[in-house]
Amino acid sequence: MANTVKIRVPGTTANCGPGFDAVGIACTIYNDLELTLSDQGGISLEVAGEGAGAIPADASNVVVKAIQMVLTKTGYPANGIKLNMVNNIPLARGLGSSAAAIVGGLVAANELTGNRLTKEEILDMATAIEGHPDNVAPAIFGGITVSIMDSGTAKYLRFLPPKNFSMVAVIPEFNLSTKAARKVLPDSVPFADAVFNVSRTALLIGALCTGELKLLLHALEDRLHQPYREQLIPGMAQVLAAARQAGALGAALSGAGPCLLAFTADNSDEIGQAMVKAFNIHKVDARYQLLQIDTQGAIIV
Ligand SMILES: Nc1ncnc2c1ncn2[C@@H]1O[C@H](COP(=O)(O)OP(=O)(O)OP(=O)(O)O)[C@@H](O)[C@H]1O
Ligand SMILES: N[C@@H](CCO)C(=O)O
């Protein structure tokens, strides 16, 4: 007995400035994953592209954890897991590589075990593994998502903006794990900073829903995580400023970083070049990639 499925999952950018652990956007950068379940026992894994040679081929692999979670929940009698991954999403850079891995594993295993889980159940399971819903929600549903947790259950809103925009992701050559980037965050923040973020997050969602993209300049400001994470990313403030000076609608840290993301209506290449140059001034090698909003989320290919 063996059956196989192929899944494509988008990368995601989370937080989008003030929407810490809540807002996320699916992006047109993808990982492909082929899963075969069998009764032959063992775990085997082939990885091409990002993470090749570094991703573990045992039960510690987050894709394997996600698959095993589905097998346990559904009681499906398979003990052999064969994975073939082709990764384009860089690892530990702020473009949702872990969310894509988790969602890929859950969606693939669900497909092979009779599609017994709803997308909402997959969201809850993915959030339980990832720890927060902001990357996994857009990886599942595509588009822009706002998610909250309520006693272990995720509630989400998914929408597409009426007016499209592009994103320029500037990807520095170094990794920064989400774990390390969360360690520098404080346990509490001044009330004024909470108010600052509540108002910007409301403005951000309003701007994206209505297409009033000029508001993004202020709507992407944040005081909950970016000021604390700046110490981990050489030149961060200058790279964000370079994006705005080159004509970006606004710019922010992507997820936990170190990627920085500019929102653009035009001039995307010039903005990417200006951001790379600003990183280079701080002795950081970087490249940029133009991204659009992915509207589908994880799909079977
Ligand atoms: N395709 C994959 N297969 C297995 N594990 C993966 C894969 N992609 C990422 N991971 C795991 O996830 C880790 C990176 O997750 P982390 O949350 O630190 O960063 P990220 O998800 O890329 O960024 P962010 O959450 O800020 O968007 C890797 O070090 C690896 O352990
Ligand atoms: N909201 C998360 C996204 C990265 O996983 C963070 O900023 O830590």
Automatic annotation (TrEMBL):
ATP binds at P90, L91, A92, R93, G94, L95, G96, S97, S98, A99, A100. Transmembrane segments: none annotated. It catalyses: L-homoserine + ATP = O-phospho-L-homoserine + ADP + H(+). Its EC number is 2.7.1.39. Residues 61-143 form the GHMP kinase N-terminal domain. It is an enzyme of class 2 (transferase). Residues 205-279 form the GHMP kinase C-terminal domain. Pathway: Amino-acid biosynthesis; L-threonine biosynthesis; L-threonine from L-aspartate: step 4/5. InterPro entries: GHMP_kinase_C_dom, GHMP_kinase_C_sf, GHMP_kinase_N_dom, GHMP_knse_ATP-bd_CS, Homoserine_kinase, Ribosomal_Su5_D2-typ_SF, Ribsml_uS5_D2-typ_fold_subgr. It comes from the Bacteria. One of its GO terms (biological process) is threonine biosynthetic process. Belongs to the GHMP kinase family. Homoserine kinase subfamily. Catalyzes the ATP-dependent phosphorylation of L-homoserine to L-homoserine phosphate. PANTHER family: HOMOSERINE KINASE, HOMOSERINE/4-DIPHOSPHOCYTIDYL-2-C-METHYL-D-ERYTHRITOL KINASE. This is Homoserine kinase. It comes from Sporomusa malonica.
